[in-house]
């Protein structure tokens, strides 16, 4: 079971309002997390930011759309009133031993992200995904398969609808390395034993987001999922410890 610190553990009691900050990621790393999840946007002048929203408004003391601002403007903002918005470079440099799950939040970020990962030579330390099929297609084209990617929603749908993992694998042409999905999407239960079996038959892992309930973590473990994203890094760690799994993943 791979434990992912979602935005650094956004709902941990000690991190209220500090999602996607270096303080949050340091906290998760100190707990033993070695898989850190973040989002990326790009500023008007091409700087990649570890930030979830399109705008600064919700979590910082400034306002404005990231795509309209320069990095010089963004760097004055403070998340939760005290932490700067980190660049992706800040994050990668701060945790040379960690692996990163990166969610492309705007198509404009696809090309800069591809260049960044290639220039840094960190292709083997990341998995990249996106809700946007267009953004993920562009990223895959630019990286030519050198960077592992998760499935976009249309590829997930292929696994839900296909009669077997073999058929779904053919439909998705082997592009995704993992299915990163919610337990449910509306009325549809996505993560079932059959769904996990189909993914495994196609050679894909199943990573589930975002799970903060110990009972649900145990249930997903019984279904055979391979990873869980959590905002409550304390609860996931404690539950995996009870299951005898934490020691086996702490250094993964």
Structure in words:
It contains eleven helices and twelve strands. The chain has 252 residues and is α/β, with parallel strands linked by helices. The protein has a single domain (2-249), classed as Phosphatidylinositol (PI) phosphodiesterase (TIM Barrel, Alpha-Beta Barrel). The strands form three sheets. Strands 1, 2, 3, 6, 7, 8, 11 and 12 form an eight-stranded mixed beta sheet that branches. Strand 4 and strand 5 form a beta hairpin. Helix 4 runs parallel beside helix 5 (133-143). The radius of gyration is 18 Å and the shape is globular. Mean pLDDT is 96; it is low at 248-252. It comes from Nocardioides jiangxiensis. This is Glycerophosphodiester phosphodiesterase family protein.
Supply Rg.
18 Å
Q: Helix- and strand-based class?
A: alpha/beta
Globally, the shape reads: globular
The main β sheet shows up as: 8 strands, mixed
Keywords:
single chain; alpha/beta; 12 strands; 19% strand; TIM Barrel; 11 helices; eight-stranded mixed β-sheet
How do the helices and strands line up, and which of them pair or pack?
Layout lengths: L1 E5 L15 H10 L3 E8 L5 E3 L20 H4 L3 E2 L3 E2 L3 H7 L4 E6 L5 H11 L5 E4 L3 H11 L9 H9 L3 H8 L5 E5 L1 E2 L2 E2 L3 H9 L3 E5 L4 H10 L3 E4 L2 H10 L3 H4 L3
Parallel strand pairs: 1-2, 1-12, 2-6, 6-7, 8-11, 11-12
Antiparallel strand pairs: 2-3, 4-5, 9-10
Helix pairs in contact: 4-5, 6-7, 7-8
């Amino acid at each position: 079971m791979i434990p992912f610190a979602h935005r650094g553990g956004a709902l941990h009691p000690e991190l209220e309002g500090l999602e996607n900050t270096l303080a949050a990621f340091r906290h998760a790393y100190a707990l033993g997390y070695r898989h850190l999840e973040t989002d990326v946007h790009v500023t008007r002048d091409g700087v990649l930011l570890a930030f979830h929203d399109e705008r600064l408004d919700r979590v910082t003391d400034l306002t404005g759309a990231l795509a309209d601002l320069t990095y010089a403007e963004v760097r004055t903002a403070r998340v939760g009133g005290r932490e700067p918005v980190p660049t992706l470079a800040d994050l990668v440099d701060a945790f040379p031993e960690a692996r990163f799950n990166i969610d492309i939040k705007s198509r404009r970020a696809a090309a800069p992200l591809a260049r960044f990962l290639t220039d840094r030579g960190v292709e083997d330390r990341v998995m990249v995904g996106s809700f946007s099929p267009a953004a993920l297609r562009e990223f895959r084209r630019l990286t030519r398969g050198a960077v592992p990617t998760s499935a976009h929603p249309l590829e997930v749908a292929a696994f839900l609808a296909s009669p077997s993992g073999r058929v779904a694998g053919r439909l998705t042409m082997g592009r995704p390395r993992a299915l990163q999905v919610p337990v449910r999407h509306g009325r549809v239960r996505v993560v079932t034993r059959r769904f996990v079996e189909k993914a495994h038959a196609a050679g894909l892992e199943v990573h589930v987001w975002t799970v903060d309930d110990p009972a649900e973590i145990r249930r997903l473990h019984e279904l055979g999922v391979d990873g869980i994203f959590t905002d409550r890094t304390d609860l996931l760690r404690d539950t995996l410890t009870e299951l005898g799994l934490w020691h086996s993943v702490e250094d993964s």
